[in-house]
Amino acid sequence: MSGYVVRRLGQSLVLLLMVSMIGFAILHLAPGGPLSQFAAGGDMTQEDLDRIAKELGLDRPLPVQYVEWLWRMLQGDWGRSYRDQQPVLQIIGSHIGATLELMLTSTLVAMMIGAWVGILGAIRRYSIFDSLATIGAMVALSIPTFWFGLVVIYVFSVGLEWLPAGNRYTIGDESLLDRLHHLIGPCMVLALVSTAVWSRYMRSSMLDVINQDYIRTARSKGLPERRILLNHAVRNALLPMITITGLHLPALLSGALVTETVFTWPGMGRLFLDSISYRDYPVVMGILVFTSVMVLAGSLIADLLYSVADPRMGAPG
Amino acid sequence: MGHGVRWLERKGDPSMNDHSTDRILAAPALRRRALLALGAGAGLAAAAPGFAPSAKAQPAQGMRKGQVVVGLSQEPTAFNPLMPGIEVDETIWMNVFDTLWYPMPDGSLVPSLATEVPSTGNGGISADGLRWRVKLRPGVTWHDGTAFTAEDVKYTLELIVAPGFKSRTRLGHALVRDIEVLGPHEIAWRMESAFAPYLAFLSNTYIVPKHLLAAASDPNTAPFNGAPVGTGAFRWDRRVPGDHIQLAANEKYFGKGPFLERAILKYVPDMTALYAQFRTGQVDAIIGTGIPANFVAEAEKLPGKRISKVSSGSLEVLMPNLGQPALSDKAVRQALYAGINKKGIIDVIFYGLHKPTESFAPQESWVYNADLPAHRFDLAAANAMLDKAGWARGANGLRAKDGVPLAFDISTTTGNALREQSQQLLLQDWSKMGVAAKVNNMPAAVIWGEFYVRSKFQTLLVGTGFRSGIDPDPSNRFASNAIPVKGGSGGNYMQWENAEADRIMVEAQATFDTARRKALYLRLQEIVRDELPILPIYQYVTAEGTKSNLMGYAPNINARQNTWNMREWYWA
Is residue A156 part of a domain? Predict the structure, then answer.
């Protein structure tokens, strides 16, 4: 097992290097740059812009800039944002809490409801419930998040005045109750799509399992249906979900770009969008590396957990 | 403008009005007292249509109550006021820091850290404009308790031009020589050449503390840049990145106010969501980008809210690149201008919010020329102009001259639906003139990069200003030595060259005679209106909103953000 882990870690490092190289090149070669926002205003001279570009080191050849960035990165220096001059790691740290809060809650809600809908849909295949769940999932997957977010705000905040129209908390209050109140709207929007996805995965996985020979054997042994479903079917149907959960890990930490924007949620998604818009190269690269590490770690953890959960797979090696 | 377009929004114009500089500067304190005697709200109401006078008297000095949440669609991220930043950053700078003097809505300059605004009349500026002497206010302290002195002003002016420091702009400051501290509260310097706009530049130059920045190993990365210390009415309290910045009242502020305990600058990136938060009362005021045009009529009917339509110093223009053969022909530019349905664009697409204009100067500016020829949307006249200039229609109905087709791209930032609709209107009308124009839009960070500054565009639909800071001097945009692609330094991306305009701008920079400056700029506007290096469409009007019981809000076209007097805001 440890040999496998070391090998996978080695592969991950090579992948990470390639990702950073490609990401750096695409980001810097894309037209425009961090000074565009100042040029647009018209009150800085070209001389000012050229001077600042030079001071930021943007006038040097791209390979030189990349090697310098990589060298600093290896020493633990992720650079500073062009926008607020703060260290990149500190910036990521200040946004990740909001994202985790939103994504964990919505994912838990979606997993619980999605698993329940999926299991029930598989057991009662082609029933009215199953048909409605299938149609509901298709509709939920088709609704644009941006539009749905605005509808939630319009109906529940502006119309009914039940929910705040965004923000993570009321400035000056920040109590648990206040935070939960603010969490409902964005959570509803994110959970809608995720529930649809989880329910489809769960239904499909459950259908695979309940047609297996060992389920038929359990039934022929006269075991109660409830026990068959809970002890044999659901447990096995959940196994593929481990992989999906592992692959979902990066999403938990990288945030939901659209929902965070509509609901004024100061998370990683919005940070990424703002940093891309302003061509804040150090922050975009920092988020890219961070997300890549999460993807690689998520897939490794999923593989390891799978082998632990399903002894038939044996230890990877 | 979602951030892309709003990058361009510039509010201020130096509008020093029609009074002589000497007169304005000789009695600034009196003017301020007169205004304050009227009550800030009442005194400024005339400058701001739709602004209601205060229903309740301003609290007594030292009385503070409550907090205000100001909604912004862009996030302030640059807190050192000398470093590169965009307009929204000024909401922080103007409340945490002070300038030597600042502009009022009527254009007069009011002393702040200085005790009087220097002029040739009061001897603060020598007759040749080369020697400046400024007396500073005693008894002012930085937020950390250290005394403010002339050394801070000297340090600030020197830091701006210091090699290696990422200062926002050195324009004007680079002319300052031999700064001399004459006493704890008096400073003097020499100018390399007379430069009238510098007075206005200093009204936007925030003074930073020497004792904190000089002690840092590198002022570019000093801790100060993340937690600024100023002399302003509010002091830095805390920042939640990506969400809000909280300022607390500076109890030792030397001027009037503040009357609020806290000011929260809340970042709400989506403008529709920002408006929703204004409706629900989560934000008390929307300033800057304002309320989207399609919601203004509805917002005006909201109970407990007050909507002010405030003029901005920015213009929406069609910017032609005169480096393109077809667009270098003045007749083509004049025909294209006649083919713009300004009324259609403003009324149909922007709900009548903006003001049509003919000049590069805002209509509230003291140099505004109201007698320029009025634009008339006339396709027949436009076609006749092109016929006369030799742009003949071919078999396909499209025009060409000497083998050069009358064809070009029109570009703007992607994702701005209203601008894209404006483009469609332009294309539709120009197609009737045999002009083959097509849309080529790009994301903000792309379009305002090399595409813009190296004049790679053909025509641009852009919202921008044509001044130097808050002075009417537009030489950074119109002078022939300001064309970057021809080795110049400036923002003349249109590549316009005109000898008479050059002469006018040089002379107007060097004289402190306001009447002479005005005459020169009136003539310059005539030249620009005739030559059309920019095709002006409208002057921006922004609908800003506040809760009705928030008093003291007063739009100021000469300030870069309407939080300029937040120290005087209070709750009724």
Answer: yes
